[in-house]
Design goal:
GO terms for molecular function: phosphorelay response regulator activity; transcription cis-regulatory region binding. Keywords: DNA-binding, Phosphoprotein, Transcription, Transcription regulation. The protein is an alpha/beta fold. It has two domains: about 120 residues, Response regulator (Rossmann fold), CATH 3.40.50; about 100 residues, Orthogonal Bundle (Arc Repressor Mutant, subunit A), CATH 1.10.10. It has eight helices and eleven strands. A five-stranded parallel β-sheet has the order 2-1-3-4-5, with helices on both faces. Strands 6-7-8-9 form a four-stranded antiparallel β-sheet, with helices on one face. A hairpin with a 3-residue loop joins strand 6 and strand 7. The chain is elongated. The chain starts with a strand and ends with a strand.
Length: about 230
Amino acid sequence: MTTVLVVEDDPDVALVLSVLFRRSGWGTVRAGDGRTALRMLHETKPDVMVLDVGLPGLDGWQVLERVRDMSDLPVLMLTAHGHESDRVRGLRAGADDYLTKPFSNQELVARIEALLRRVPTHADLPRRYDDGVLTLDAVTRRAMWREQPLELSDLQFRLLHVLAQAKNTVVTPEQLLGRVWDDASGGGGDRVKFAVLRLRRAIQELDPDADPIESVRGVGYRYRGN
């Protein structure tokens, strides 16, 4: 059964969401604050998270940042503010979708259904890639950079694998959406942009001088190795 982790400090709103999701055939787990949400993420392994921005203690932005450090769990953020700057902040932080309160129950369910459909399998990826610097094993999801373990999330692994397969060739954001996110709609260029930024950061945490992914202005991204 699909499980939704509802992170909402208002017990009435959390109850409404839980009832709505159960009626949609999904299981729910609830957390009223950010620290509890992170603990439950480990304990329950949910399929999607609905995350309120205005939480006590760790706010939604801080929770999202920590989630993205360890998981590619689809995250839909809820907020009382509809400012464009907040939506951009959410995308940059790694949110998959963003909904402003008050919202339609049907729209919320439809958006979660869309996020769940984006979970990719990527059985067509070659099992192994090795260019002498980067080694990727698609079976074990193990990545090595200059013979050192490279800590990547599942999404970062898929993104790097797709780029590495096309080494020295520009891959467009639309192509990456189709191969990495299974979303060939052509939308979501910002999602790709910020995912590439996080991938670069992960590599440079291991090797500060590394710069293997080139942004080709107006076209896409190219893995050139190092």
